[in-house]
Amino acid sequence: MNDRPVIIVGAGLAGLRCAGVLSERGIPWQLIESQDGPGGRVRTDYIDGFQLDRGFQVLLTAYPQAQAALDYETLDLRSFEPGALIKLPEGFRRVSDPRRRPATALSTLRAPIGSLGDKLRIAWLRRRLGRMSIDDVWRRPERTTREALADYGFGPEIVERFWRPLLAGIQLDASLTTSSRMFDFVFKMLANGDSALPAAGIQAIPDQLAAKLPAGQMRYGTTVVAVDPGGVWLEDGELVRGRHVVVATDGPTASRLVPLVPTPPSNRVACLYFAAERPPVDEPILVLNGEGEGVVNNLCVPSVVAPSYAPAGVSLVSVSVLDTTSDTEQLETAVRDQLRGWFGRRVDTWRLLRRYNIAHAQPRLRPPALATPQRTIEFDGVFCCGDHRDNASIDGALQSGARTADAVASVVAHA
Fold first, then answer.
1. Half-sphere exposure of 279 (CA within 13 A, CB side)
2. For 162-190, how does the pLDDT look when each residue is reduced to its tens digit (9 = 90+)?
3. Element at 16 (helix H, strand E)
4. Are 217 and 101 in contact (CB under 8 A)?
5. pTM (global) more than 0.90
6. Angle 13-24/394-413 helices, nearest 10 degrees?
């Protein structure tokens, strides 16, 4: 009997979920991770009392795989308001979900982001997607998000002032060329649950997954440089033999380790964190750039959502920018110049804490990226999982990890 463990390369959400399911099946495994802890791209840095997530990230509580894998109560989730403040030339305007915030219905209807018909179409689309199962959503015709919005009847004004900045903040794609299946799924999740942050930072999600795993089977700070179906080679030349190998890294790394894995194009993002004496907005809400000009796509104050994100008496401001080509000083200047027009001179007193320039924040999912063949699990005996094998979300990473563990378990059972 082959008693060697399954080798899992990568302790991101997919790798951790794969390890968890293999543990439930009684299949031994060893996880090898190049970073100093779990999480992959879902990490938090703790600096001077601030919690800085590596890029603005939220958990959509309606994600089915997250509900299955995570203990929400222990995560101590803190939710955003269901809606957004949209910066328009005429000022800030609020758009909310009138089902959950009935008092905002009139202000939402009056917001100059599109016609009354456009706003009624949002309610219609919510009901339509709400009646569909998750599987039905993923089987819908695939086109670009912009094409889908036009087919749903939305006019250019609401697309540019509302949908574009909202979806660019989630999908990191201001061109709206992401797969319409991804849009339908995300909008269904937004309508059915909250957008939330764990009180201890987004790092709390992989930390919780890792804490459920048996001790002593995770090896951090160790880089894998090559793989085959029977083992992996480490940077120091060591060969680690395994029963099977699962590559659970991001897409670019997976394609280097397993040449048959297509190299996914990447969506980039820059995230700037500032310390402010007082918050620019005093409620837990996302602020969107509906003006269509400037570098800032979206802004929020994580410490208003969850006070633990900043020391007492100080606020943490998060700014997301899709143009990552400028150097830090140039980008900081451009951000301050734009936000000065939003919030006044107090922006000049903000202290830059850190800029994250994330070259591969998400795999770019343009049609037909979510066609079934793209979800291949096995490549010449090496298993692969990650958001590039499913969809670009926390849910997609967890789903891919669980699906791959099931495939490995099936092979083990029939060996």
1. 25
2. 999 999 999 999 999 999 999 999 999 99
3. helix 13-24
4. no
5. yes
6. 40
